Amino acid sequence: MSASAIYILDMKGKVLISRNYRGDIEMNVIEKFMQLLLEKEDESQLSPIFQHGDVAFVYIKYNNVYLVCTTKINANVILVLSFLYKCVRVFCEYFKELEEESIRDNFVIVYELLDELMDFGFPQSTDSKILQEYITQEGHKLEEVRPPPALTQTVSWRSEGLKYRKNEVFLDVIESVNLLVSSNGNVLRSEINGAIKMRVYLSGMPELRLGLNDKVLFETTGRTKNKGVELEDVKFHQCVRLSRFENDRTISFVPPDGEFELMSYRLNTQVKPLIWIESSIEKHSHSRVEYMIKAKSQFKRRSTANNVEIIIPVPSDADTGRFKTTCGTVKYVPEKNSMIWSMKSFPGGKEFLMRAHFQLPSVQSVDLEAKPPIQVKFEIPYFTTSGIQVRYLKIIEKSGYQALPWVRYITQNGDYQIRTTS
């Protein structure tokens, strides 16, 4: 990567704090940054990198500050940007929020962090859990400071000597369904974004092995009768041994302590709408508008959707709404030009109706308002749309203690929209 220096600037381009790592570029070159940025703002597209002579500026904007790296050599820009976002994450975990005021209030800590985050232009330690072991927000006494073992051992994301009275692992498989349905009922776009999130409270240095109903694994081992899931765009936490996964599809890892995301995946597949909405909207000579909304749950009866919200747009000049529903409650939210139909629970295989009636001004005007889609929010526990399953979760630790793994499945809405007709 090899960055020469890093700067944090305010919105006017004034340097709040900087750190020179390599000394191969004059530090006052940053004075050109704001001038170049303002010149670029006239163009329709702004790039996160621009050149001035033989110096490249790579930057991100966060709240009311700019984080800028300068480099002279042919650096990997994606790595530099990734490093800047890591810096933002670390600062946010230290100060709750990264902005001009939090930088001014914490100069000493920021300098210490910049020294540890990068060394001679190369990223060093960007894990805030490890950094917090030896960079604290208290005064330092003059004494010999040794780096925490996690920095010098192979497993940098986990500290040694962890002990728990009760050894437990919580694993959540969370899937978000993105769906766009046209006004005539055709599914225009559908995909599933999934994540496996873990909370690990285990003593020592355990190795975990996770088995999923992975289609590729079933095919290579000749178990074609087993129903497998074909995962796309799989991304793993750094703790996963990628070579092991590539060889035999085993997800083997020494986990960080506490909460983390083990992996994420995507399935670009035709999804049957879990909650189907039919809408009928009738306007009567600009004096009133009537809605009839039918909601149907299209998942198995043994499952139940919780905290369901159906957000139906209404005209901006609507007034005095009256509602009737077979389940749940409806409220008019004028600041959002919407009514929200809420149901605490929506069992599978059920159908509910809601009628609404709004007064409209009697002024005759051409209806040019855009018709936003209906949005649906929900959460279905103990259920996954893709059919992904945790086949096993093995915990191996040299002391041989018994640990309890807890597995949960949740499906929720992502960007879930249904277009309406009127």
From TrEMBL:
InterPro entries: Adaptor_comp_med_subunit (IPR050431), AP2_Mu_C_sf (IPR036168), AP_mu_sigma_su (IPR022775), Clathrin_mu (IPR001392), Clathrin_mu_CS (IPR018240), Longin-like_dom_sf (IPR011012), MHD (IPR028565). It is a peripheral membrane protein. Residues 166-419 form the MHD domain. GO terms for cellular component: clathrin adaptor complex; clathrin-coated vesicle membrane; Golgi apparatus; organelle subcompartment. GO terms for biological process: intracellular protein transport; vesicle-mediated transport. It is found in: Cytoplasmic vesicle, Clathrin-coated vesicle membrane; Golgi apparatus. PROSITE patterns: CLAT_ADAPTOR_M_1, MHD. Its main location: membrane. Belongs to the adaptor complexes medium subunit family. Subunit of clathrin-associated adaptor protein complex 1 that plays a role in protein sorting in the trans-Golgi network (TGN) and endosomes. The AP complexes mediate the recruitment of clathrin to membranes and the recognition of sorting signals within the cytosolic tails of transmembrane cargo molecules. PANTHER family: AP COMPLEX SUBUNIT MU. This is MHD domain-containing protein.
